[in-house]
Structures are given as C-alpha cells and as structure tokens.
Amino acid sequence: MKNKKIFTRKWKIFFLVLIIGFISLQFIQPSTQNPKVTGDLDAPIAVKQILKRACYDCHSNETKIKWFDKVAPFSWLVSKDIIEGRKALNFSTWKDLPQKQQDGNLYTALNFIILKEMPLKQYLLLHKEAILNTEDIEILKKYVTSRTAIPIAKPEALTTKNVMPKSIHTVASSLNGIHYIQGYDRWQAISSTDRFDNGTMRVIYANAIAINAIKKEQINPWPEGTIFAKVLWKEIIDSSGNVSPGKFIHSEFMIKDSKKYATTDGWGWARWVGDELKPYGKTSAFVAECMDCHQPMKKNDFVFTMPISLN
Amino acid sequence: MDLFNETAAISSVDSFPKIILKWKVLTSSINKKNATMSTLYGNDWAFNYSKQNQGSFYPVGARIALVTWLQQADKHWFGANIPGKIKTIEIIAFENKAGKRVETYLKYEGQPLIASKTDAAFNIKRINFILNQRIALRV
User: Fold this and answer.
1) Which of A191, A195, A242 sits opposite B31 (nearest CB)?
2) Which domain of life does this protein belong to (chain A) (predicted)?
3) Contacts with A296 from chain B: Cβ below 8 Å
4) Neighbours of B103 (CB within 10 A)
5) What 8-state DSSP symbol labels residue B49?
6) ω into residue A73 within 30 of 0, thus cis?
7) pLDDT means over runs of 10, chain A (311 residues)
8) Nearest-CA distance from A194 to chain B in Å?
C-alpha cells in the first residue's frame, strides 16, 4: 500500500516536471518573420492558388503560421523547414533569378511534387490543404511546359558543323578530387534523353561493370566500380522539327564506390563544363547540388536513367 | 519505380543482331513532329574516322546504324522524353566492290523488326539524310 503511494507520487512529480518543462519551452520560440516580398512569381491565377496553398508557407515570404505550428518544440522544426525552404526556393524573390534558373527551379519543384518528395510528409500531417491532387499537378505541368518552348534555330546554326576541339591533354580534377575520365565515349550507351524542359539532349554511357550488371539485371544497388558518363548538348531545332546536337554543354560522371564516397550516397559526382572542360562549381560543395537533385531516386540507388534492357 | 527501360529493347523475336547497340555512339537526334529519337551508332572503323574527321566519307569497312525509337515520357522526370518502342534500324555499310567504295543501305522496321524492301531512290535519300547527321563527340 505504501509502495503504491510512493509510486503514484513519483508519477505526479514526473508529469508536473513535464508540464512545467513544456510551458517553459513556449517562452523559447524561434523568430519566424516574413521579410519583404521583392519580386513575386507572375503566373496564372489557377497556378498561383495551388502554389500558395501547397508551397508558400515554406517557399515564400508570405508564410502563414497556424496556432499549432507555434507550439514548441514543433515550432522549432517549422522554423527550420521555413529557413531551408526559402533558401532552396523562394517565390517572393523570384524575379531576382534569371529566366533559365526560374524555369529549372519550376521543373525541379514539380518533379519533387510528382515523386512525392514535396510537400514534406511531416508538413502534410497537419496541413491537409497542401496535398496536391492529379488535377493540380496537370495544371502545373501545363504551366511549366508553356514556359519552355524551344525556338527554331537560325539558318546559320543549322548548317554550322560541330567542331571538335583539339585533344585536351590536361583536364583539371573536379573540386572534390575526381580525375577526368577520357575514353568514356568508347563505352556502350545505355539511353538518351530529350530534355524539353531546358532544351538539351543527352547520351548516357556506362562502363563494362555497369553493362554486365544490366545484363545480369542486378542494378539496385549498382555494383562497386560502376561508372556512368552523361554528355549534354544544346538542342538545335529546324522548321521540320528535326533536332540535332548543337553546342557542347558538359560531361558529368557518377562513380560507384560505397567506401570512398560514403558521405555522398556512395557515389563520386563530377562535372566538366564547356569545350575547355572546366571543373564545375566554386568549391567541393557543388556535390550537394548533385545529391539534392538525385534524392528522389534513393530507392533506385540515386540513378535516374533507366537503362535500355539488354535481355 | 522502374529500374529498366524494357519498352525500348531490341526484342528476342526481332530478326536483328543486337550487336549494333554495342557499337559506339556517333551522335543522336530527335524529331519533335514525329515524336521520335534516334542514335547513330558506328563500328570501330566508323568511330575512329569520326573522332579524327569532320566529314562523312567513311572508310571501307565502316558500318553505321541509325536506330530510331518512338519517344516515351520519362517516368522519373517530367520534362524529359526517353526512347520508347523501336521504330526502325537503318544500316549503311561502306564496302569495296570491284575497286570502288560503295554504300549499301538496309532497313529493318516493324514489331518484330524485319528487313524491309526499299528502292534505290529511297535508299539514296536516306543515305544522304544519315550522312548529314551532325556528329557529336568530345574528348
């Protein structure tokens, strides 16, 4: 009997401490403010309605915080999501971005929605209004597609031959220390892509290790030593709809080594830009861009390309 | 999520050697109106020639093949099209006949892919079209 009383008293103290702690937490609130809107995205009303409903809380300076978002410790998570969200994409400072980057951001955002990476699952738990249905996605698809029609090339662009630069003997390593891989164009191609979102065409090559894995149908995960090379060209289109590769844009690589590249999802990422094959980025942090974009493919070992079946 | 693009494969019932997909890529192209995309492959003779030369006067022994697929939307990226079903495979062989370099044209089409009969005028038209593809190679 005495033991039971002590036990009950302990529980009472425990809950009291918990309640006091919870109340105290409410006095430590993050300051989530709405900075000035300097250049909001201009889009049709139907598109704006969807974006405001599903995206603007974290991706604009017009965040509307609900009462339950202000309850600590959840308010700290909400604040973190808003800071990171605005950093990645902010519709309120939209006009500061060049047109090309605006279009790229819209396609990326839309693909993250389609692949169910966005809106964040934890956000949707308490913000059901942010769920995008099929109709919403169709409206967004039409809108982003309408922004990126590729103009027909001028006649001189159609007749100019691509000039291959003279062999480059020394190409600087990427900023994360990867050496340029010459001779990838002797590898087998596993697919090609027509990227109408940004007017580029690509060929994706794979080394022998990857080709064997495709034949054995063992590509998830891809075996150690796998290397992909992706080569991008600007699309040149004539009045008949024929598209040919124009200016060389860049070559990029994914190198599978789970130990060496453990901190970057098991892949070494590298890109060399332009005819002079300049290493991409300003610091080695460029890798974060590659990884962020490939995150929706984590269930496919971070690889977007579906190789053409060889069986 | 799908791992393989089964749609674009050369089927086992196609009367066509898969070896062509092992050849080297010389370039690729798209036709927006027909919603097709093509890859021009070449054997080692053709590839080595294209790495060194701007023209399309391939040496005897060279073979090139234009594989054309219908496009399909990429399930992994809205904004991209990838190869769908194979539409045609056209091969040009550069051979020596009686001391002269000649070009032989062969076309496979349909599902399954079978060799189709073509006349001389058609062959010349297609040879010109294929030889005018803009080569896209880099170091």
Assistant:
1) A242
2) Bacteria
3) 76
4) 16
5) H
6) yes
7) 72 85 72 86 95 94 80 75 89 93 94 92 87 95 88 73 65 95 95 95 98 96 98 93 93 97 97 94 94 94 95 79
8) 5
Domains in chain A: boundaries: 45-147, 155-300
Residue of B nearest to A184 (CA): B139
All residues of chain A having their beta carbon less than 8 Å from the beta carbon of residue B48 are none
Using CA atoms, how far residue B85 sits from B38, B63, B67, in Å, is 11, 23, 11
Quick: pLDDT tens for B128-137: 999 999 999 8
Chain A positions touching B37 (Cβ under 8 A) are 192, 194
Contact between chains at B80 and A243 (C-beta distance less than 8 A): no
Q: How far is B107 from chain A, CA to nearest CA, in Å?
A: 20
pLDDT given at position A89: 93
Contact indicator for B70, B87 with CB cutoff of 8 Å:
yes
- Region B29-49: mean pLDDT is 96
Which string of DSSP letters, residue by residue, matches chain A?
-HHHHHHHHHHHHHHHHHHHHHHHHTTS------PPP-BPPP--HHHHHHHHHHTHHHHSS-----GGGGSTTHHHHHHHHHHHHHHH--TTBGGGS-HHHHHHHHHHHHHHHHTT-SS-HHHHHH-GGG---HHHHHHHHHHHHHT-PPPPPPHHHHHPPPPPPPPPS--PPPTTSPPP-TTGGGSEEEEEEEETTTTEEEEEEE-HHHHHHHHHT--SSPPTT-EEEEEEEEEEE-TTSEEEEEEEEEEEEEEE-TTTTGGGTTEEEEEEETTTTEESSSSTTHHHHHHHHHGGGGGGTT----PBP--
CA distance A205 to A18: 58
Residue with tokens 């009472």: A12
Q: Which residues of B fall within a CB distance of 8 Å from A307?
A: 4-5
Q: To probe the interface with B, which of A306, A310, A311 has the most B CB atoms within 10 Å? A: A306
Closest-CA distance of chain A to residue B26, Å: 9
Binary contact (A310, B21; C-beta < 8 A)? yes
A–B CB contacts, 8 A cutoff, strictly below: 152
End-to-end CA distance of chain A: 75
Mutation site for B-interface testing, chosen from A242, A251, A294, A301 by largest number of B Cβ within 10 Å = A242
- Looking at the whole model, is its pTM more than 0.90? no
